[in-house]
Design goal:
Elements lengths: L5 H10 L3 E3 L11 E3 L1 H20 L15 E3 L8 H6 L2 H4 L1 E6 L6 E3 L4 E5 L9 E4 L4 H14 L2 E5 L11 E2 L13 E4 L3 E3 L9 E3 L5 H6 L1 H7 L6 E10 L14 E11 L4 H18 L7 E5 L15 E6 L9 E10 L1 H10 L5 E3 L14 E3 L2 E8 H12 E3 L7 E3 L8 E7 L6 H16 L4 E4 L5 H11 L3 E5 L3 H4 L1 E6 L5 E5 L3 H9 L3
Parallel strand pairs: 3-13, 7-9, 23-24, 23-25
Antiparallel strand pairs: 1-2, 4-5, 4-10, 6-7, 6-8, 11-12, 13-14, 14-20, 15-16, 16-17, 17-20, 18-19, 21-22, 25-26, 26-27
The chain binds adenosine-5'-triphosphate.
The site of adenosine-5'-triphosphate has 16 residues, from β14, β17, β20 and α10.
Length: about 525
């Protein structure tokens, strides 16, 4: 089980310029976060890794379940779509969380986030029932009160407390019982107006997911490119949800970025593609360093499935054990068989035929060709959160080691590290600064596409290593008194602190091998 401290991770993220509160000088805005210089590059590296491994060379060139190369093409659709898109997708009617308000404290809670301490034997003895939100200060406080009132207690979901008993409920931080309202639906989509008049006719929404932009362009992509089913359309981009209780740092934000693939296939092949994508996506997160017991794959139970997925190939979540969910896990990516639900909804609402003509299916004709088959493809959707991915990578990389010059360091996978290497002159004399400046310039020229190469000539060498460890830089190269004579430098490994000597003219290739860079 992880024992990492979220407070320390957040403090380091702020101190070294990974993540800042949005609008911080105005007091911040709940649920919004900005990425600082190191965070912006880390996030870009994760997004680029996804793009490379999903779009440019899907699955590293390995074949799909049909034995052929996996085909995925990119798309970049708008954040604001025609409002009917969200009617068709079901978001206008259904994209809501039931909420309860506390009339006394004015706090608002997600209905499914509240739990209640009740007497273990069911006898309330005229005392209140104690509602709380797990993981907040209210939990311990309410538990103490409940134990005093009933002796033995147990915790149940608010949803299982009969409505008649709600008048006896003491809400978190409230003084009087019965202050919670009935659950009310709260739509999570941000509304805006398109055009100058701003009447109700002009209402539009900020997209709550990138997926629908893909579905509504499915036909254009088929008609204007040479892709044939099975193939995928992928896009990354911002999504917005007016989350009721944004929390846990960037985990639940109101503005976040998704990386989504909609993979279109024939219904008969959906189960195979579902398994393929599920396993491929787990392997991908592992390849970036989330390899240990903090990563798990969880298949959904049948009663958890979305209505359109009930008869499908399956739905699963790739989950990470964040310090704030431990010992439990939080979702990083969901892989769902969406059947042909979305295409069929858009086909009906837009009154446009979105069927695909598959010339390789259907009855075999005497001339050896096929008759063809028209159908709405089924969809396997691997939908990942970029911000949650960055957060998982940060948490996984965070390491405490009091014996090191920097007691806190970040062990990023070299592919993701925002600083790829650093070059130091041991001292600022005897030609060392000139040699290090030259090596630095050479490395920058080769590696600028994926991150920074730092040059630091200030302070004692131990302090410089410490600064790089804290920023997650995997390798430091030091020019010392022997460099001029031996034409070699020391390279120090962030994770082990170990040092070795390598030829100065080998440094660039040595680093490229470790970064798997060109
Ligand atoms: P949750 O149950 O945590 O609200 P979800 O099941 O609604 O998530 P999806 O609609 O499946 O999430 O979205 C796909 C991915 O988008 C999630 O796996 C997650 O990584 C990311 N995501 C969803 N909501 C948020 C959010 N509020 N903040 C950050 N990332 C999010």
């Amino acid at each position: 089980m992880t024992s990492k401290s979220m407070d320390k991770i957040m403090a380091l993220a702020k101190r070294r310029g990974f993540i800042y509160q949005a609008s911080e000088i105005y007091g911040g805005l709940n649920g919004f976060w900005d990425y600082g210089p190191l965070g912006a590059q880390l996030k870009k590296n994760l997004r680029d890794a996804w793009w490379q491994d999903v779009v440019l060379l899907p699955c590293g060139g390995a074949p799909g379940p049909n034995g052929e190369p996996v085909r995925v093409v990119p798309l970049d659709s708008t954040i604001i779509q025609h409002p009917k898109v969200w009617e068709a997708s079901g978001h206008v009617a259904g994209f809501s969380d039931p909420m309860v308000d506390c009339r006394e404290t004015k706090a608002r809670y997600r209905f499914d986030h509240l739990f209640v301490f009740v007497p273990a034997d069911g006898d309330r003895k005229g005392k209140p029932l104690f509602a709380y939100q797990p993981g907040t200060a209210s939990e311990a406080k309410q538990q103490k009160k409940a134990e005093k009132a009933f002796g033995e207690t147990k915790s149940v979901a608010l949803a299982s407390v009969p409505r008649d008993d709600w008048t006896h409920l003491l809400a978190p931080e409230a003084e009087k019982v019965g202050s919670l309202t009935e659950p009310r639906a709260f739509n999570l989509m941000f509304k805006t107006y398109v055009g100058a008049t701003a009447t109700e006719e002009d209402v539009a929404y900020l997209r709550p997911e990138t997926a629908q932009g893909i579905f509504v362009q499915f036909k254009n992509v088929v008609d204007t490119t040479r892709v044939r089913v099975p193939f995928g359309i992928a896009q990354t981009g911002k999504a917005f949800r007016n989350e009721v209780t944004p929390r846990n740092f960037t985990f639940r934000s109101r503005e976040f970025e998704q990386m989504e693939i909609e993979f279109f296939c024939h219904e008969s092949e959906a189960a195979d593609w579902y398994k393929f994508w599920r396993d491929t996506r787990v392997a991908w997160w592992k390849s970036l360093g989330l390899a240990g017991e903090n990563l798990q794959l969880r298949e959904h139970d049948r009663d958890e499935l979305a209505h359109y997925a009930k008869n499908g190939a399956g739905t699963s979540d790739i989950e990470y054990r964040f310090p704030f969910t431990a010992p439990g896990f939080g979702e990083l990516e969901g892989i769902a068989h969406r059947s042909n639900f979305d295409l069929s909804q858009h086909q009906t609402h837009a009154r446009t035929n979105l069927e695909y003509f598959d010339s390789e299916r259907g009855e075999l004709l005497p001339n050896g060709s096929r008759k063809g088959e028209k159908y709405l493809p089924h969809v396997i959707e691997p939908s990942a959160g970029l911000d949650r991915g960055v957060l998982a990578v940060l948490c996984e990389a965070f390491t405490e080691d009091p014996s090191r010059p920097s007691p806190e360091l970040l062990k990023f996978h070299p592919r993701l590290a925002p600083i790829k290497g650093a070059v130091f002159p041991l001292v600022n004399k005897d030609g060392m600064p000139e040699m290090s400046a030259k090596l630095h310039a050479e490395l920058v020229k080769r590696f600028f596409r994926t991150g920074a190469i730092e040059h630091d000539a200030k302070q004692a060498i131990g302090r410089r290593y410490a600064r790089m460890d804290e920023a997650g830089c995997p390798y430091c190269f030091t020019i010392d008194g022997d460099t001029a004579a031996s034409q070699s430098v020391t390279v120090r490994d962030r994770d082990t602190g170990g040092q070795e000597r390598i030829a100065i003219d080998r440094v660039s290739d040595w680093l490229a091998e470790r970064l798997s860079a060109p």
